[in-house]
Amino acid sequence: MIALLLMAHGSPRPEANEDIRKVADLLRSEKKRPFVLVGYLDCNEPDIATAIDDCVTAGATTILAVPYFLHSGRHLLRDVPAILKDAALRHPAVSILMGDYVGHQPEIAEVLMDRVRASG
Amino acid sequence: MRQRGDAEIVEVGFLNYTDPTFATAVERCVEQGATRIVIAPYFLIAGKFVVEDLPATVEKVRPRYPDVMFETAGVIGFHRAMADAVLASASAARLPEEWEDAMVDNRAWCREQTKCPLYGSRVCRVQIEVPA
């Protein structure tokens, strides 16, 4: 069973995390990805490590961990891989892979342009 | 966005750490003939950078161009296309070790900035360029 794990930075303001929860809902409902979890690097629960453990408990054999980040900075290139490698040691039978970051996808241009149009 | 033909002029400006700065990006727009500049905050949420730092930066630059109209669009926030971006990202999944190497390539765009959290660290370009 393949789990999709959205990894977000997290924010001390609860409303800031509402967007990623909506994206996760959309993936479950319309994109037919029933097994979607969210994990946070900071500020919020569950943290990424706990979310991975939850995926495994729920029966995941492959976890596709997607960074919900716009930039490939320190968190993405050091902190997140370290957490995932650590999790791989805890769950040697599970394939834990790291996806590209969402900021790298062309869909972002579409979103930005929608925001620009809405401002006019 | 240039490839998509979204606007006649598309420039990128950074608030911190990276060149070109916001002011330089505005200058480039005006040089190319922009009379209206829509600033699209490349941020997921409207946090401190967007709510405080960005308007302050805009207000610093705006008086230089009295004939140019400035507008600021909304942040990325929730958008249905973000679910597609997640799926595209998931399809590129590989071992986490492979992502760490990308760090080295990224700093090519850095500018020296003592406020950067990585300044002077092992991965900082400023240190790495010091001759051995």
Describe the structure.
The complex is a heterodimer of chains A (120) and B (132). Chain A is α/β, with parallel strands linked by helices. Chain A has one domain: Rossmann fold (3-Layer(aba) Sandwich). Chain A has helices spanning 18-29, 48-57, 74-90, 107-119; strands spanning 2-8, 36-40, 62-67, 95-98. In chain A, strands 2-1-3-4 form a 4-stranded parallel β-sheet, sandwiched between helices. In chain A, helix 1 links the parallel strand 1 and strand 2. In chain A, helix 2 (48-57) packs parallel to helix 3. Chain A is globular, with a radius of gyration of 15 Å. The relative contact order of chain A is 0.18. Chain B has 2 domains: 1-79, Rossmann fold (3-Layer(aba) Sandwich); 91-132, no CATH class. Chain B has helices spanning 22-31, 48-61, 81-90, 96-100, 102-106, 125-128, and strands spanning 36-39, 69-72. Chain B starts with 21 loop residues before the first helix and ends with a helix. The chains are: A alpha/beta (120), B mainly alpha (132). Chains A and B meet through helix 1, strand 3, helix 3, strand 4 and helix 4 of A and helix 3, helix 4 and helix 5 of B.
Any descriptors?
heterodimer, A: alpha/beta, Rossmann fold, 43% helix, B: Rossmann fold, 2 domains, two-stranded parallel ribbon, 6 helices, globular
Which CATH architecture of the largest domain in chain B? 3-Layer(aba) Sandwich
Which CATH class of the largest domain in chain B? Alpha Beta
Average pLDDT score of chain A? 92
Classify the fold: give the CATH topology of the largest domain in chain B. Rossmann fold
Please give the order of strands in the largest beta sheet of chain A.
2-1-3-4
Q: What's the Cα radius of gyration of chain A?
A: 15 Å
Count of separate DSSP helical elements of chain B: 6
Based on CA inertia axes, which overall geometry of chain A fits? globular
Major sheet characteristics of chain B: 2 strands, parallel
> What portion of residues of chain A is helical?
40-55%
**Rg of Cα set of chain B:** 18 Å
